[in-house]
Write a structure and sequence with these properties.
Elements lengths: L1 H6 L4 H12 L17 H12 L5 H18 L10 H13 L4 H21 L28 H8 L1 H7 L1
Helix pairs in contact: 3-4, 4-5, 4-6
Length: 168
């Protein structure tokens, strides 16, 4: 109520801006899913798979089933798509890495899940894809304890400062 009373004193343009901003938090705001029906992760998975199965290879379908099962195992069988958060996706990534999976493998798992969540955004079940905002692992291979061998005669020349200018 205090916000409404204070807004009466604002110029018209600022009241419009405030109304638009506040509307994003109302039940029918722009951030509310278009479809107010809660849908389970499994229902969304089946719906998406039915939609794309004629365009995808059997190998892709196997990867999709496996990757989405990993997520269901981590987050729980009865989770709704609307309940999946960025924090949960980070938990899933940590869980897979803690199982000893390589970052590249985890990124591959996330590809199927990303496509499913993009479908959920497109049909209005959710407003954004939580996979897009999660902390994805780096796929770069890190080399540990890699040394460059420098021959003794080169080191000796470097130590003898008089020869550095002559050699180089």
């Amino acid at each position: 109520q205090s916000v409404i009373k204070a807004s009466d004193q604002l110029p018209y343009e600022d009241r419009v801006k405030l109304a638009v901003y506040l509307s994003t938090y109302l039940p029918d705001g722009i951030n509310t899913p278009l479809n107010n029906k809660l849908i389970s992760f499994n229902e969304a998975r089946i719906e998406f798979k039915d939609e794309v199965k004629r365009d995808k290879s059997s190998q892709w379908l196997e990867h999709f089933d496996r990757d989405t099962q990993y997520l269901k195992d981590c987050l729980g069988e009865d989770i709704n798509v609307q309940d999946i958060t960025v924090k949960m996706m980070n938990k899933f990534i940590s869980h897979r890495l803690n199982q000893g999976k390589a970052p590249g493998t985890v990124l591959r798992n996330l590809l199927s899940i990303t496509q499913l969540m993009d479908h959920c955004v497109n049909v209005g079940y959710i407003t954004f894809n939580p996979v897009d905002k999660c902390n994805k692992p780096s796929n770069q291979v890190q080399k540990k304890n890699e040394f460059t061998f420098i021959p003794d005669d080169v080191i000796a020349k470097l130590i003898n400062k008089n020869n550095i200018v002559d050699e180089y």
